[in-house]
Structure formats: C-alpha cells, structure tokens
Design brief:
Helices cover 29% and strands 23% of the residues. The protein is an alpha+beta fold. The strands form 3 sheets. Strands 1, 2, 3, 4, 8, 9, 10 and 11 form an 8-stranded mixed beta sheet that branches. Strands 5-7-6 form a 3-stranded mixed beta sheet. A hairpin with a 6-residue loop joins strand 1 and strand 2.
Length: 264
C-alpha cells in the first residue's frame, strides 16, 4: 500500500536467565533498568542485549555443543547461533559481572571480581575491549554447554525499536556473585519466579511480556517439584513468539498469542 511505513528489521539479541537454588525455592536473577533508559525504563529484566559485530569473531574460544546444534534449536544459522551465544555471555558479564567461561579443557571461572576484572568489564562495556580479547588474555573460552536455549520473542511491528531475542537459561556459576552495572541496572535482586509474577500483578514491579511469560514457565516447573537442574536439562521446541499491536477506542494494546501462557 502506498505510503505505508515499513517496520524496522528486528535486531538480533540474547538474554540469559540465571537461576540458583535457595532455601525458599529456586530463584532467578533480575535487574531493574534505570528510569532514564529509553527502552523499558524501570522494568525488571534479565541480563541481555543486542548482538555486536565482535560477537561473531571466530577468535572467541568455544567449549560445548557445536554452534549448528544451537542454530537448530534457535532457528538460526550456525554463524548467527554462535554470535548469539557469545552475545549472551558478553551481555551477562557486562550487566551482572557473572562470567560463563572457563579453561579450554573444561571447568568454570571461579571468580570474575576484583580490580582487574572490573577494569576489563568496564572496557568491555565502553567498547575498548572485545569478548575475544578478554577471554584470550585470561586463557578462557566461553562455556556454551552451560546455556540452555529456552525461548524466542520478536518485538511486534509498529514498535520503533525491535528485537529478535533468544532466551537462554544458565545456573549461577559456583563462587561467582552478581554485581550490577550502574548504567544498566539500579537494583539487582534474586526473586522466586512466583513472587516476581505476584509483584507484577500487584503493580509493585514492572515486567515486560517476555519476562513475565518466562517467569511463568519457571514458576509452573518449580511448583511441580522441579529444580534448576531440571530446567537446564529441558529440551524445548522453540518457536518464535511475536505479539501484535491492536488499536481499540484510540488506545494501543499489546496482544500476546493465545498459545502463550501469559500470567499478567
């Protein structure tokens, strides 16, 4: 149709839900976005962000299933799947300080804190250092085997900022503790998924639809007696979920597909 605006192409992105076992039940790491941010200000989210060109570097060391295996699950080429996994690791380190990496022969980095790590983290955030350079400097490779593909959400047409986001699950690496990055989060919290959903329903916290839906997945699994190990062992059929915008009585509503269990 003449004059119709073409929706922007979604940017590839990766998000990681970090889980840990706790006395009151499994918890997920969540971060509150500063109110000054343009996208989702004040929302509680998981660490994540857009794929950078450097995430596709073949110099980034890799341990785990072949990228083609991830691609088959994520609806992506092997090259894009590799970049998505690398972006997931990079963004998680940038935003939470948790590093899903280890020596080339296996194992996980027991710590990613301290002055030198903080300096590398800042340089990574500011673009003065790439993930490949950081890992090579420290003799590490990404641990792709620690990431379980979980979901794929695409921002609806009509939005000016669109993302094709792949969601991964990972367990909190032993010995590591999350610390937020001021530019990305003004609060870091471990929440039981059911509690986060209840807070969202009560209006105490803001949750985006993909976040709420994923929390619901976990809440259902944990209520049935599952734990973090069960989640990580899950092999899901991942189909892209693309909500749509509808206008009714002058108001715009986000409509989530019927097959998605949306708790809010």
């Amino acid at each position: 149709m003449a004059g119709r605006l073409v929706p922007p192409v979604p940017r590839d992105a990766a998000t990681v839900m970090v889980l840990r076992e706790a006395s009151g039940g499994p918890e997920v790491l969540m971060m509150r976005r500063p109110t000054a941010m343009k996208f989702a200000p004040g929302a509680y989210v998981f660490p994540g962000g857009s794929v950078d060109a450097s995430d596709a570097s073949p110099e980034i060391g890799w341990y785990g299933p072949e990228p083609a295996e991830f691609g088959a699950r994520l609806g992506a080429s092997a090259e894009l799947a590799r970049a998505l996994v690398c972006a997931a690791v990079r963004e998680t380190f940038e935003e939470s300080g948790l590093l899903l990496a280890g020596p080339a022969d296996g194992g996980v980095a027991s710590t990613a804190s301290g002055p030198s790590w903080q300096a590398d983290r800042l340089a990574l955030v500011e673009g003065g250092l790439t993930l490949g350079e950081l890992l090579a400097r420290r003799g590490l490779v990404i641990r792709a085997d620690l990431l379980t593909p979980w979901a794929r959400w695409i921002t609806p047409e009509g939005e000016s900022r669109r993302f094709d986001a792949r969601f991964f699950v990972a367990a909190l690496p032993a010995g590591q503790l999350p610390t937020g990055h001021a530019a990305e989060a003004d609060e870091v919290a471990w929440l039981r998924p059911a509690d986060a959903i209840a807070a969202g329903r009560a209006g105490d916290i803001s949750l985006l639809p993909p976040t709420a839906s994923t929390l619901n997945d976990f809440a259902v699994a944990f209520a049935a007696g599952g734990g973090v190990t069960d989640i990580l062992a899950t092999s899901r059929t991942i189909e892209p979920i693309c909500p749509r915008l509808e206008v009714e009585d002058g108001e715009t509503w986000l409509v989530v597909p019927n097959e998605v269990e949306y708790p809010l």
